[in-house]
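Reminder to self: C-alpha coordinates first, then the designed residues, so the page reads top to bottom the way the pipeline ran.
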Protein backbone atom coordinates (compact mmCIF):
# COMPACT_ATOMS: atom_id res chain seq x y z
CA UNK A 1 0.00 0.00 0.00
CA UNK A 2 1.64 3.25 -1.19
CA UNK A 3 0.93 6.46 0.72
CA UNK A 4 -0.20 9.45 -1.31
CA UNK A 5 -0.36 13.04 -0.06
CA UNK A 6 -3.93 13.73 1.04
CA UNK A 7 -5.54 16.92 -0.19
CA UNK A 8 -8.34 17.84 2.29
CA UNK A 9 -10.82 18.39 -0.53
CA UNK A 10 -9.94 15.00 -2.01
CA UNK A 11 -10.52 13.32 1.34
CA UNK A 12 -13.80 15.19 1.80
CA UNK A 13 -14.99 14.23 -1.70
CA UNK A 14 -14.06 10.62 -0.97
CA UNK A 15 -16.14 10.65 2.21
CA UNK A 16 -19.17 11.97 0.36
CA UNK A 17 -18.67 9.44 -2.43
CA UNK A 18 -18.35 6.48 -0.06
CA UNK A 19 -21.56 7.47 1.73
CA UNK A 20 -23.43 7.42 -1.58
CA UNK A 21 -21.71 4.32 -2.93
CA UNK A 22 -22.29 2.10 0.08
CA UNK A 23 -25.94 3.13 0.49
CA UNK A 24 -26.55 2.51 -3.21
CA UNK A 25 -25.33 -1.05 -2.77
CA UNK A 26 -27.49 -1.56 0.30
CA UNK A 27 -30.56 -0.42 -1.62
CA UNK A 28 -29.61 -2.56 -4.61
CA UNK A 29 -29.91 -5.60 -2.37
CA UNK A 30 -33.69 -5.03 -2.43
CA UNK A 31 -33.79 -5.68 -6.17
CA UNK A 32 -36.44 -8.38 -6.80
CA UNK A 33 -37.00 -8.58 -3.01
CA UNK A 34 -38.99 -5.41 -2.25
CA UNK A 35 -42.52 -5.77 -0.80
CA UNK A 36 -44.10 -4.50 -4.02
CA UNK A 37 -43.06 -4.21 -7.66
CA UNK A 38 -43.34 -0.41 -7.54
CA UNK A 39 -40.97 -0.32 -4.56
CA UNK A 40 -38.57 -2.63 -6.33
CA UNK A 41 -38.29 -0.03 -9.09
CA UNK A 42 -38.28 2.96 -6.72
CA UNK A 43 -35.46 1.66 -4.53
CA UNK A 44 -33.43 0.72 -7.60
CA UNK A 45 -33.85 4.23 -8.99
CA UNK A 46 -32.72 5.77 -5.70
CA UNK A 47 -29.72 3.43 -5.70
CA UNK A 48 -28.83 4.54 -9.23
CA UNK A 49 -29.08 8.20 -8.24
CA UNK A 50 -26.68 7.61 -5.36
CA UNK A 51 -24.32 5.63 -7.55
CA UNK A 52 -24.22 8.49 -10.03
CA UNK A 53 -23.36 10.93 -7.25
CA UNK A 54 -20.63 8.58 -6.02
CA UNK A 55 -19.09 8.24 -9.50
CA UNK A 56 -18.83 11.99 -9.96
CA UNK A 57 -17.28 12.46 -6.54
CA UNK A 58 -14.80 9.60 -7.03
CA UNK A 59 -13.75 11.24 -10.28
CA UNK A 60 -13.18 14.52 -8.45
CA UNK A 61 -11.19 12.83 -5.69
CA UNK A 62 -9.04 11.14 -8.34
CA UNK A 63 -8.33 14.51 -9.97
CA UNK A 64 -7.24 16.02 -6.68
CA UNK A 65 -5.07 13.23 -5.31
CA UNK A 66 -2.84 13.23 -8.39
CA UNK A 67 -2.32 9.46 -8.50
CA UNK A 68 -3.94 8.78 -11.85
CA UNK A 69 -6.52 6.52 -10.29
CA UNK A 70 -10.04 6.27 -11.71
CA UNK A 71 -13.46 6.07 -10.09
CA UNK A 72 -13.33 2.29 -10.55
CA UNK A 73 -10.09 2.14 -8.55
CA UNK A 74 -11.82 3.85 -5.64
CA UNK A 75 -14.97 1.77 -5.93
CA UNK A 76 -13.48 -1.68 -6.42
CA UNK A 77 -9.76 -1.71 -5.60
CA UNK A 78 -9.92 -0.87 -1.90
CA UNK A 79 -10.24 -3.18 1.07
CA UNK A 80 -13.33 -2.98 3.23
CA UNK A 81 -11.56 -1.08 5.99
CA UNK A 82 -10.35 1.58 3.53
CA UNK A 83 -13.88 2.84 2.96
CA UNK A 84 -14.65 6.03 4.85
CA UNK A 85 -18.44 6.14 4.74
CA UNK A 86 -20.51 7.02 7.77
CA UNK A 87 -21.83 4.03 9.70
CA UNK A 88 -25.49 4.89 9.11
CA UNK A 89 -25.45 4.04 5.40
CA UNK A 90 -23.91 0.60 5.85
CA UNK A 91 -26.38 -0.66 8.43
CA UNK A 92 -28.07 -3.82 7.23
CA UNK A 93 -31.36 -3.46 5.39
CA UNK A 94 -33.27 -5.40 8.02
CA UNK A 95 -37.00 -5.29 7.38
CA UNK A 96 -38.60 -2.67 5.15
CA UNK A 97 -39.11 -0.29 8.09
CA UNK A 98 -35.37 -0.23 8.81
CA UNK A 99 -34.61 0.58 5.17
CA UNK A 100 -37.21 3.36 5.14
CA UNK A 101 -36.01 4.99 8.37
CA UNK A 102 -32.36 4.74 7.32
CA UNK A 103 -33.27 6.52 4.09
CA UNK A 104 -35.35 9.11 5.94
CA UNK A 105 -32.51 10.05 8.26
CA UNK A 106 -29.78 10.09 5.66
CA UNK A 107 -31.79 11.86 2.96
CA UNK A 108 -32.87 14.54 5.42
CA UNK A 109 -29.25 15.25 6.24
CA UNK A 110 -28.06 14.84 2.68
CA UNK A 111 -30.59 17.28 1.25
CA UNK A 112 -29.38 20.06 3.53
CA UNK A 113 -25.75 19.18 2.86
CA UNK A 114 -26.17 19.19 -0.93
CA UNK A 115 -28.09 22.46 -0.83
CA UNK A 116 -25.17 24.08 1.01
CA UNK A 117 -22.56 22.37 -1.19
CA UNK A 118 -24.19 23.83 -4.30
CA UNK A 119 -22.46 27.05 -3.19
CA UNK A 120 -19.08 25.33 -2.76
CA UNK A 121 -15.93 27.05 -3.97
CA UNK A 122 -15.03 23.75 -5.63
CA UNK A 123 -16.84 23.97 -8.98
CA UNK A 124 -16.98 20.20 -9.49
CA UNK A 125 -18.52 19.51 -6.08
CA UNK A 126 -20.94 22.41 -6.55
CA UNK A 127 -22.08 20.94 -9.88
CA UNK A 128 -22.65 17.50 -8.35
CA UNK A 129 -24.56 19.09 -5.47
CA UNK A 130 -26.79 21.13 -7.76
CA UNK A 131 -28.00 17.99 -9.54
CA UNK A 132 -28.12 15.92 -6.35
CA UNK A 133 -30.51 18.36 -4.63
CA UNK A 134 -33.22 17.46 -7.15
CA UNK A 135 -32.59 13.74 -6.76
CA UNK A 136 -32.45 13.71 -2.96
CA UNK A 137 -35.64 15.79 -2.75
CA UNK A 138 -37.40 12.77 -4.27
CA UNK A 139 -35.52 10.34 -2.01
CA UNK A 140 -36.68 12.24 1.06
CA UNK A 141 -40.26 12.48 -0.15
CA UNK A 142 -40.34 8.74 -0.82
CA UNK A 143 -38.96 7.92 2.63
CA UNK A 144 -41.30 10.40 4.34
CA UNK A 145 -44.40 8.97 2.69
CA UNK A 146 -43.46 5.45 3.70
CA UNK A 147 -42.62 6.55 7.24
CA UNK A 148 -46.12 8.02 7.58
CA UNK A 149 -47.71 5.00 5.96
CA UNK A 150 -45.95 2.49 8.20
CA UNK A 151 -46.19 4.59 11.35
CA UNK A 152 -49.91 5.22 10.95
CA UNK A 153 -50.65 1.71 9.69
CA UNK A 154 -51.15 -1.38 11.79
CA UNK A 155 -49.87 -1.87 15.31
CA UNK A 156 -47.22 -4.20 13.88
CA UNK A 157 -45.97 -1.70 11.28
CA UNK A 158 -45.92 1.09 13.86
CA UNK A 159 -43.93 -1.04 16.31
CA UNK A 160 -41.41 -2.02 13.64
CA UNK A 161 -41.00 1.59 12.51
CA UNK A 162 -40.41 2.83 16.05
CA UNK A 163 -37.93 0.02 16.63
CA UNK A 164 -36.08 0.99 13.44
CA UNK A 165 -35.87 4.62 14.57
CA UNK A 166 -34.58 3.60 18.00
CA UNK A 167 -31.97 1.39 16.33
CA UNK A 168 -30.70 3.91 13.78
CA UNK A 169 -31.00 7.25 15.57
CA UNK A 170 -27.64 6.95 17.43
CA UNK A 171 -25.80 6.82 14.11
CA UNK A 172 -26.99 10.33 13.20
CA UNK A 173 -24.54 11.92 15.65
CA UNK A 174 -21.63 10.99 13.40
CA UNK A 175 -23.08 13.06 10.56
CA UNK A 176 -22.45 16.28 12.48
CA UNK A 177 -18.99 15.56 13.83
CA UNK A 178 -16.00 17.60 12.71
CA UNK A 179 -12.29 16.88 12.43
CA UNK A 180 -9.19 18.43 10.87
CA UNK A 181 -10.37 17.65 7.34
CA UNK A 182 -13.83 19.15 7.72
CA UNK A 183 -12.45 22.22 9.46
CA UNK A 184 -10.01 22.76 6.58
CA UNK A 185 -12.61 22.40 3.81
CA UNK A 186 -14.98 24.70 5.71
CA UNK A 187 -12.21 27.29 5.97
CA UNK A 188 -11.63 27.00 2.22
CA UNK A 189 -15.34 27.42 1.48
CA UNK A 190 -15.54 23.95 -0.04
CA UNK A 191 -18.02 22.64 2.54
CA UNK A 192 -20.62 24.12 4.90
CA UNK A 193 -20.26 24.20 8.65
CA UNK A 194 -21.62 21.09 10.32
CA UNK A 195 -23.86 23.07 12.66
CA UNK A 196 -25.59 24.64 9.65
CA UNK A 197 -26.73 21.20 8.52
CA UNK A 198 -27.58 20.19 12.09
CA UNK A 199 -29.94 23.11 12.58
CA UNK A 200 -31.88 22.40 9.39
CA UNK A 201 -31.35 18.71 8.77
CA UNK A 202 -32.21 15.81 11.04
CA UNK A 203 -34.84 17.78 13.04
CA UNK A 204 -36.95 17.82 9.88
CA UNK A 205 -37.20 14.04 10.00
CA UNK A 206 -38.59 14.23 13.51
CA UNK A 207 -41.59 16.11 12.17
CA UNK A 208 -42.49 12.98 10.25
CA UNK A 209 -42.02 10.99 13.44
CA UNK A 210 -44.32 13.34 15.33
CA UNK A 211 -46.98 13.14 12.64
CA UNK A 212 -46.97 9.38 12.88
CA UNK A 213 -47.08 9.50 16.67
CA UNK A 214 -43.62 8.02 17.15
CA UNK A 215 -40.74 9.70 18.92
CA UNK A 216 -37.08 10.14 18.10
CA UNK A 217 -34.95 9.07 21.07
CA UNK A 218 -32.84 11.56 22.99
CA UNK A 219 -29.53 10.11 24.03
CA UNK A 220 -26.28 11.64 25.26
CA UNK A 221 -23.97 12.59 22.45
CA UNK A 222 -26.66 12.56 19.76
CA UNK A 223 -28.76 15.32 18.18
CA UNK A 224 -32.05 15.94 19.96
CA UNK A 225 -35.35 16.17 18.16
CA UNK A 226 -35.31 19.95 18.65
CA UNK A 227 -31.96 20.23 16.88
CA UNK A 228 -29.87 20.97 19.97
CA UNK A 229 -26.89 18.84 20.93
CA UNK A 230 -27.00 16.75 24.07
CA UNK A 231 -23.86 16.94 26.21
CA UNK A 232 -21.68 14.06 25.01
CA UNK A 233 -19.77 11.63 27.18
CA UNK A 234 -16.46 10.31 25.95
CA UNK A 235 -17.88 6.80 25.66
CA UNK A 236 -20.79 8.00 23.52
CA UNK A 237 -18.87 9.68 20.73
CA UNK A 238 -16.25 7.20 19.58
CA UNK A 239 -17.21 6.96 15.91
CA UNK A 240 -15.19 7.05 12.68
CA UNK A 241 -15.66 10.77 11.99
CA UNK A 242 -14.00 11.64 15.34
CA UNK A 243 -10.54 10.87 13.99
CA UNK A 244 -8.21 13.84 13.64
CA UNK A 245 -5.51 11.84 11.91
CA UNK A 246 -3.89 13.47 8.88
CA UNK A 247 -2.96 10.11 7.39
CA UNK A 248 -2.54 10.04 3.60
CA UNK A 249 -4.84 8.37 1.12
CA UNK A 250 -3.63 4.82 0.45
CA UNK A 251 -2.88 3.55 -3.03
CA UNK A 252 -2.95 -0.10 -4.02
CA UNK A 253 -0.74 -1.76 -6.60
CA UNK A 254 -1.55 -5.17 -8.00
CA UNK A 255 -4.48 -7.45 -7.32
CA UNK A 256 -4.32 -9.63 -4.26
CA UNK A 257 -7.80 -11.09 -4.41
CA UNK A 258 -11.44 -10.11 -4.36
CA UNK A 259 -12.31 -6.86 -2.63
CA UNK A 260 -15.69 -5.55 -1.62
CA UNK A 261 -17.24 -2.58 0.13
CA UNK A 262 -18.93 -3.13 3.51
CA UNK A 263 -22.34 -3.20 1.87
CA UNK A 264 -21.50 -5.54 -0.99
CA UNK A 265 -22.40 -8.81 0.66
CA UNK A 266 -24.86 -11.29 -0.74
CA UNK A 267 -28.11 -12.43 0.88
CA UNK A 268 -27.52 -14.22 4.13
CA UNK A 269 -23.99 -12.89 4.56
CA UNK A 270 -23.39 -10.61 7.48
CA UNK A 271 -20.94 -7.71 7.00
CA UNK A 272 -18.41 -6.76 9.64
CA UNK A 273 -19.61 -5.65 13.05
CA UNK A 274 -20.66 -1.99 12.83
CA UNK A 275 -21.37 -1.36 16.48
CA UNK A 276 -21.52 2.10 18.02
CA UNK A 277 -17.90 1.85 19.21
CA UNK A 278 -16.32 1.02 15.85
CA UNK A 279 -13.19 3.18 15.78
CA UNK A 280 -12.46 2.90 12.06
CA UNK A 281 -10.78 6.15 10.89
CA UNK A 282 -13.13 8.47 9.04
CA UNK A 283 -10.46 9.01 6.40
CA UNK A 284 -7.98 6.46 5.03
CA UNK A 285 -4.83 5.51 6.84
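Designed residues (285 positions):
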Amino acid sequence: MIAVAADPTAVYALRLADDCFVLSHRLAQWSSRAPALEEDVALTNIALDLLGQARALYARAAELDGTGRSEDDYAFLRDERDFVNCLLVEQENGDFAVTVIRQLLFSTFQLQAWAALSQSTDASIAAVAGKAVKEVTYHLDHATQWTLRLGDGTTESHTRTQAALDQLWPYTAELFESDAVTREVVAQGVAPKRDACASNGIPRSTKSCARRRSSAPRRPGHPRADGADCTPNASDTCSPRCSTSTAPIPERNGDDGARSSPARCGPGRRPRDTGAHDRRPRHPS
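The domain at 2-215 is CATH 1.20.1260.10 (Ferritin).
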